[in-house]
Design a protein that fits this description.
The protein is of the alpha/beta class. It has five helices and five strands, in the order βαβαβαβαβα. Helix 2 runs parallel beside helix 3. It is globular, with a radius of gyration of 14 Å.
């Protein structure tokens, strides 16, 4: 079932992955994206995200926090880049850390500063989803 106002076919397509340790941000962003019709794979850290990627379907986009426990965003990206099956999945950093704005340091495809502008977030996800 596609939600009203959702991108055509978004609910049936691949999910977006959200890697965010803050439970409030993870919940809010997940709910927003789900209301727009996307399925969301939400993970609390890079370790959980890699396990999910190795165990299942591939997202069309990874939204990645940088400052997380267990495995931070930089470590996650290094591991993702080593795996040819995962390396081509686009990554947009979500961070309040100014080092994240230099996407070359984490080899990201984009950067959204926290606090997250929800309209910009939705435009970004739509761009990568092809909607």
């Amino acid at each position: 079932m596609t939600l009203v106002g959702a991108p055509e076919g978004a609910a049936a397509g691949p999910p977006v992955m959200l890697v965010e340790d803050d439970p409030d941000i993870r919940s809010m962003v997940s709910q927003l994206l789900e209301l727009e019709g996307w399925r969301v794979l939400a993970c609390a850290n890079g370790t959980d995200a890699l396990e999910a990627l190795h165990g299942g379907e591939r997202p069309f986009l990874i939204l990645l926090d940088l400052m997380m426990p267990k495995m931070n965003g930089w470590q996650f990206r290094a591991e993702q880049a080593r795996d040819s099956a995962l390396s081509k999945i686009p990554v947009v950093v979500l961070s309040g850390d100014v080092r994240g704005s230099d996407t070359s340091s984490v080899r990201a495809d984009g950067y959204l500063k926290k606090p997250i502008d929800l309209d910009v977030l939705l435009k970004t996800v739509r761009r990568y989803s092809g909607a």
